[in-house]
């Protein structure tokens, strides 16, 4: 069964449930031809290895603390802080505390 994405005008809950943090959970919330929204759950001390995506991204920390390694430096994101990266920039993520973030990817064609 395919994942149901949110429709235009539909409410999207972003807070994690009590059992979300037990496993690395990425949930695609909405996807169009031009962008994808992902609710990213990162448990404490779980790394997302260095990778890159073609499109530009934003990462908005909603809960916890997330460290993003990119451009040869580490940036700490706390709730309410956002990071922007150009497409193709190698980056890795790790959580200093159990964390939830909203990831936006602008898709290239």
TrEMBL record:
InterPro entries: Cupin_2, RmlC-like_jellyroll, RmlC_Cupin_sf
Higher taxonomy: Bacteria, Pseudomonadati, Pseudomonadota, Betaproteobacteria, Burkholderiales
Gene3D superfamilies per UniProt: Jelly Rolls
Protein's name according to its UniProt entry: Cupin type-2 domain-containing protein
Cupin type-2 domain mapped to chain residues: 42-102
Origin superkingdom: Bacteria
Taxonomic source organism: Massilia atriviolacea
